[in-house]
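agent> Task received from the user: take the single chain below, predict its 3D structure, and emit structure tokens. No templates, no multimer pairing.
agent> Plan: (1) validate residues, (2) run structure prediction, (3) serialize to tokens, (4) report one or two observations.
agent> Step 1 OK, no nonstandard residues flagged.
tool_call: predict_structure(input=
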Amino acid sequence: MTVVRQVTVIGIGVFGLCCSPEATVSKGTDAKKVESKEPKAAEPKGTAPGAVRPGTAPGVQAACNGAFSDGTAVNVANPVFLADVPGTQQFCDFHTFAWNQFLYFTGGDSPQFLAMAPWYNLLQPAGSAAPSAYPGGSTELQGGKLDKQQAGDADQLLDVSGAPALYDIRVNQTYYDSLVAQNLYTYALYAAACKPDSHGSCTQLLWLPPNATTTAPSVEIKTAWRDFRTPASCPADTYFCVGRLALVGLHLVQKTATHGEWIWGSFEHVGNAPDCAPGSDTPIAPSSPLGTPWSFFDPGTVPASVMSSKTCPVTGTPLCNTDPHSGSGFKPVNICRTAPLPAGGASPDNCAVKTGAGLPNDQANNPGNVACLNATIQPQRTGVWRNYKLIGSLWTRGTMAPTQDFRVKGFQGDQPPLPFVEPVGFPNLANTTMETFLQSGPGAGCFACHNLPSIATSKFSQLDLSHVVTKFDELGAPRVKAM
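)
tool_result: status=success, residues=483
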């Protein structure tokens, strides 16, 4: 790839979004493979994207096609883990970081995310002893039939065959060891440490790393899977299959020394669902870009006008993203993406890097840059991994110390003297497999539900900005084994 100056190639971690229908409370490294340079301490005050952070030199990116503003670049074939976003942290740097971390966790014959600790190894029933050393037991893939608070309130996403989507959450060793060391592995222990008020909001804020104990980053990965019911039926020529399950969505979230709000990235299989309107990179068509049937959109069940206009309404008289409830159960409904990426792939317009202190988010070319990165990186991958694309990433403007309480504009009210920060990148980021029915409106976006203060109630809990601890009451729920 071409850059303005010499590029040093490096190898290049991001997590899940979810909302809780029960959350009515008031809410105002992997050490073995981390880049050798220790993460810098976060500055307590923000620095706008485009401004030079202390200790860094201005970088020039010719295009948002895999290079960072410090001159380093993604190494698709041999990625390594990064503890934080490199360079001067331009908008493009965050999207490149998301891609780089995805490459690290999904590369190789045995993707590293599957060796991470599943949530049910970490969380323990009431009265239990601490979990065993990381990863806490078998890391065999098991999916939950209805992942609490995902896919939009209590709605269930079914594929075109009527099979429910299944979900899994995993954490890295830094996250795992910190939760155990803080004695937060049962709900009673967590609630005692959090000291919730009458609304469930924690009066004692608890932090995952980086924190006062370690500068290593916490990573959480949430995945969505399509169930083909038997291993032989899973189409391993087009999907990453684990037994009967095919990967269709992945959230990758990482807390860093300069971004205590966590950096959020989301990836999808290109055959999930088309975009709701024409002119985008994945328009409505009889089949997916791979020539295969869509997973969550059936052209044979929509009016001819939808196919001819390449438009599927989701408001007024909706024809897509409709209510999936059917009596006491659920039915398949047609899904489309409401916030698509632009067509054009690695066109000059899409690849153009926008910089400048205080640059408005809607002028930063975020969708175009992600489209450019996808068009650049996907063809360099091998096998089925070519079929997975970044749909967006999210963070807050400037920097955020990892143990700083804050509030998010557009999702919370201002609460001086706490920092009141702007979400940038893709503020309404949503994955068609995990926020299926919350893709638009005031409930759309990670920070609608992942915000401070932390929570501890019998129905819903949140540690730092992570919702893993809300699954204490799901430990006894049935899970489907992939193999």
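agent> Step 4: summary for the user.
Confidence is low (pLDDT under 50) at residues 1-58.
agent> Done.
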